[in-house]
């Protein structure tokens, strides 16, 4: 029986995946690296520093910067990103998400956030959803990021549930792998192609109703 939902944030609850993309794209441009949406799929769910490494590799510049310079570059990206999240309000919850969170709360399901983002708590505050959640896994506490299952396993622990009692929701390929690796039922938000490893795929969050999720997960 499903007793908990473990959510990714960026691209599932709100459209910050787009802001991450735009901020990385502008930093990449400054470094003389072109990146498109297809390449960006690889960055979803991946930590800030790992994303920077992937971009540098993509532009064949992996040996061009010292660790210190890389920290400075990642900080620049984060500053631009933080500017864009300042505009977030509760209206920025993706379609269907508010209802899903409310229905899950009403039914007594546990809810945890499993986001790689260090900006997660601030975004939840801006969306005014932090009270609906029972816990937020601190990405700084992880020994390995997505696709490692650790973040979802910790989410389940936070809820006091077995992984088999939880559903994980993701929009990143690395995130779906992490959910599957944790032994949870995975819901993928996105194209059939990008989400092909998910147990249940929706192209749009508006199709994420609690009834459908529970029905699919208990099959
Ligand atoms: C994930 C995003 O949720 O968080 C990634 O999908 C992002 O794109 C990662 O790099 C880390 O985010 P932040 O806000 O800590 O830089
Ligand atoms: Mg995401």
CATH architecture of the largest domain: 3-Layer(aba) Sandwich
Average pLDDT across residues?
A: 97
Give the C-alpha Rg: 17 Å
Order of helices and strands: EHHHHHEHEHEHEEH
Number of strands: 6
Low-confidence stretches: none
Q: Could you tell me the strand content as a percent range? A: 5-15%
Put simply, the count of helices is 9
Structural class: alpha/beta
Principal-axis shape equals globular
Number of domains: 2
Distinct ligands: 6-O-phosphono-beta-D-glucopyranose, magnesium ion
Distance between the termini: 10 Å
Describe the structure.
The chain has 219 residues and is of the alpha/beta class. It has 2 domains: 139 residues, Rossmann fold, CATH 3.40.50.1000; 71 residues, Putative phosphatase, domain 2 (DNA polymerase, domain 1). 43% of the residues lie in helices and 11% in strands. A 6-stranded parallel sheet has the order 3-2-1-4-5-6, sandwiched between helices. It is globular, with a radius of gyration of 17 Å. It starts with a strand and ends with a helix. The structure holds 6-O-phosphono-beta-D-glucopyranose and magnesium ion (MG). The site of magnesium ion has 10 residues, from loops.
């Amino acid at each position: 029986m499903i007793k908990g939902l473990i959510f990714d944030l960026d691209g599932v609850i709100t459209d910050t995946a787009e802001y991450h993309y735009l901020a990385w794209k502008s930093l990449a441009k400054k470094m003389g690296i072109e990146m498109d949406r297809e390449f960006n799929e690889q960055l979803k769910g991946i930590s800030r520093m790992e994303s920077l490494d992937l971009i540098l590799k993509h532009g064949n510049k992996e040996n061009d910067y010292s660790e210190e310079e890389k920290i400075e570059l990642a900080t620049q990206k984060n500053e631009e990103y933080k500017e864009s999240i300042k505009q977030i309000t509760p209206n920025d919850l993706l379609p269907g998400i508010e209802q899903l969170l409310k229905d899950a709360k009403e039914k007594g399901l546990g809810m945890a956030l499993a986001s790689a983002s260090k900006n997660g708590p601030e975004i939840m505050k801006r969306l005014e959803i932090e009270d609906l959640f029972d816990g937020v896994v601190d990405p700084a506490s992880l020994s390995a990021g997505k696709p490692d299952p650790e973040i979802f396993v910790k989410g389940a622990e936070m809820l006091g549930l077995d992984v088999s009692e939880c559903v994980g929701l993701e929009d990143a390929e690395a995130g779906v792998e992490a959910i599957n690796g944790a032994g949870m039922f995975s819901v993928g938000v996105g194209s059939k192609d990008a989400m092909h490893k998910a147990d249940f795929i929706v192209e749009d969050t508006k199709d994420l109703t609690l009834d459908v999720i529970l029905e699919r997960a208990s099959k």
